[in-house]
Amino acid sequence: MPDNRQLNSLQILLFGNSHSGSHNLPGTLQTLLRQGTSKTVSALRAGGAPYLDERLDDQVSRPLLESSQWSHLILQAQKYSTTGLYNYSTAGAKSWIALAKARGVTPVLFPEHPRAGNNEEGMRIFRLHQQIAAEQAACVAPVGPVWDQVLQQYPDMTLHSEDGNHAAPAGALLTAYILYEVISGRPADALPDLPDLAVPVSSQRILRNAASAGVRQYPACPF
Predict the structure, then answer these.
(1) Beta-carbon neighbour count of residue 114 at 10 Å?
(2) Nearest to 41 by CA among 52, 51, 50, 32
(3) Are 124 and 84 in contact (CB under 8 A)?
């Protein structure tokens, strides 16, 4: 696996559902990487919203992966039980990880954040993705644990949208900071304030610090 932190450009492909596109998450991640790495950066979210196992047969996703010299493949939309009572196959996620690594692309698993008011879901989804990475090595972004910490420490900060499921602008930015640090290997808390973002600068600082603390607590990449 190449050390993508040494590349002059970062070309990121993202497979996911609506959670991977809320509030232009790919565009925000692209902005952060340009600010923090001084590299040429592009980030593309593939169309549609199928689960990872369904993408294997959709006639679009695999050719897209093979169409360019991507540096990273972000994988979101692993099926999981909202109640925790059932198990779903992780074969699709592991297949995508293997396909990415065969092309020299760094795979990054993107566990979803917890739903509002659910204190166990974030860690459970994160642990599920850690289990996938234990069987097929990949980076795992600690999205759930970091969201849990921010929600506990800053209960007045709005991370969820009104539906209690998708991210609000601050939540999407928190996830982008986490993915930034996982992909770049550079601390999110060293990024500058960006007044043009739809999140107050004071909140940006809290979220950056939380992202860096979380990645230190839950190291993301085994390589």
Answers:
(1) 25
(2) 32
(3) yes
Contact criterion met (CB below 8 Å) for 73 and 107: yes
Least confident of 79-88, 135-144, 165-174: 79-88
Cα separation, 101 vs 103, in Å, equals 5
DSSP 202: H
- Find all residues with CB under 8 Å of 87, minimum gap 6, and list them: 81
In this structure, are residues 107 and 101 in contact, taking their beta carbons and an 8 Å threshold?
A: yes
The 10s digit of each residue's pLDDT in 165-190 is 999 999 999 999 999 999 999 999 99
Alpha helices in the chain (DSSP H): 25-37, 52-55, 61-65, 91-102, 121-135, 143-153, 169-184, 201-217
For residue range 11-28, list pLDDT tens digits in order.
Answer: 999 999 999 998 999 999
Q: How does residue 85 score in pLDDT terms, banded at 50, 70 and 90? A: confident
d(CA 17, CA 124): 19
Percent of residues in the chain assigned helix, strand, coil, to nearest 5: 45, 10, 45
Task: Tell me if 140 sits within 8 A of 133, measured CB to CB.
Answer: yes
**Tokens, residue 65:** 């992966």
Quick check: 6 pLDDT over 80? no
| Residue 119 neighbours by CB under 8 Å, 6+ apart | 148
Task: Please check whether residue 81 is in contact with residue 45, taking contact to mean a CB–CB distance below 8 angstroms.
Answer: no
